[in-house]
Amino acid sequence: MPPRGAHGTRTVWTVVYAVLFLLADYAALAIMQWGVALTSTRVQLSSANEGLGAMWHKMFTQGNCVLLLNLLLIGLIYLILLMATNRFWVATPILLSAAAVIAAAEKMKIATRYEAILPSDLNFLGGNTGDLMKFLPPEAGGIIGVAAAIIVVSIAIAVVCWRLDPRRGALVSGGNKAVGACTRILLMLLPALAVAGYATSVGSVDSWGYHVSRGMGDKPSMWDSVYDAQRNGVVVSFLRQVDPKVMDEPADYSRETMDEVAARYAKEAAAINRTRTHSLDDSTVVYVLSESFSDPTRVPGVELNKDPMPDIRKIKGETTSGLMLSSGYGGGTANLEYMGLTGLSMVNFDASLTSPYQQLVPGACWTPSVNQLWGPPSNSIGLHPYEPSMYSRETNYKKLGFSHFYALKGDDVIAHQDRIDDSPYVSDEATYRSTVEEIRKTDDNQFLQVITMQNHMPYNDWYKDNEFTVTDAPGSDKPLTDKEKRSIRTYAKGMELTDEATKDFLEELDDIDKPITVVFYGDHLPGIYSTAGADARNSVGLHLTDYFIWSNKASWSHDTKIEDSAYTSPNFFIAQAAEQMNAKVSPYIGFLTRMHEHVAAMEPPVVNTIQGWDRIPEGQAIYLNQDGEPMAYADMDAETKQLLADYRLIQYDITAGANYLKDTDFMNLPK
Length: 671
Known about the structure:
This protein is α/β, with parallel strands linked by helices. It is 44% helix and 8% strand.
């Protein structure tokens, strides 16, 4: 019989454990959020006012419970530790120490690369831990000191409490030992299954984990991993990327099927190559992703007092050019960039995969991209006059085989960073100067990926001498708002500056004595056309940007204008560039060539709102024919349907399958 008062003491300490459980749970979250906290974010496109305080504020003012979701997940992990050790004063310092280690790692990674810890970073633990010492920032000593202090204090408090606690922190004790053991196993197994189930389902649209996460306020911010962790919590933002759903496996997927696909398009490539006389790497190729570039005079209801792009309009009339179907509106740059570099299409991905750069590339085993056709990484150069961590570009470009990625920060700093008037963004003219200097550094042929920033949102009347005026187009059903007019006016001036800088850029390339081909395209329209966007009939029109493929005077394809170029999507650029340059193709590019002959452009369903990162929009994928008219899958001929089915097989094998094509010559140019 227990001594008098023992039951009361047990009850008191049970209450103490419950209260301290909640406090330790919150303390662990606070420590981890300290790891991603910044006094101000390095990325201007994100808000600095995110963190624990913002989470509390959102919970009470907006009903956003992402704070509780993080606490729940940590609490489940905490419960596993408690049951595994059966000692409150052992599990608690372990939890807080682990939080301190995670926070220190987050803080040091952010200090060196402005990027939160991703699931792919765990690969370092498999055998590259020695390399981690190379990434320690100058402030590492202070960060480690704070983490060590948290660990020491948590252990010291636990030791003191252990001495005061007559139960010594025992949670399941006395009574039947078998029952106690079963209780502990059950209380480890159930939370472990819950956390594992959440982690493996939250990345799939319409799963229970997805609905729980979104229902409690998780709002993915995939362009900036640090902001995402600040906004949605370290735990939620990390687990969301553990197991994203990429694609459903095609029913006929197998090694035998992929061998058949490889053989089929090897024949197609051979047929195409009979009339081709050059190789892709006989030329330098420059992809220019011009931020938000699209002719504003095509937007319904908008009228300008003058043409903002007369030079590019003239260039388009003289070379291969047309309109590019974009999956984004006001955002989604990296997805268009990814499609251009890989030849893969967002159409084929599951609705859950909204950002390949964040959800797919970091953990991919095989990442073939078009720049790799130019040989060693030294021949692949990336330039982007902004934060290199946006969309994890700095990391991804290395994985894609680029030797340098020049940006505003990091190991490779872009040479020219001039701004125009009050604009916070580097001008296109400066970006082009940096590009030309890279081209002139070598006589070898290269692949250069250039991503501009000049015309990025917002459009806040940056330019001092802006002669543009914006009025309602005759016959408009609804007048433009004053806010729209102000934004469009600023945007139009930026377009004019891009137009002039692009003309000068091409003239400089004409003076270089080696063949150069430029693929120029706008990634999406700016998200400023709220009046036009309110009309669903404008959906496709608000997703068409301008593009052209141009070759300089030193190129044999100078003044070439290929047919059937009126419409395209970025996954077809490499096939079109090869045709422009009369270059031989790999079986993969041979496939893309045939696909483009049957479907001019393809993108997932589109919406007239700035792209979110919750899921690919619901609806039918968009397919356009050579005249820009929508194509219904049911009306397509058997050959087109076969090509689309093969596309899914190819994309699945590369991104989510067994990489059977890697063992073939499917990606290789003819020797």
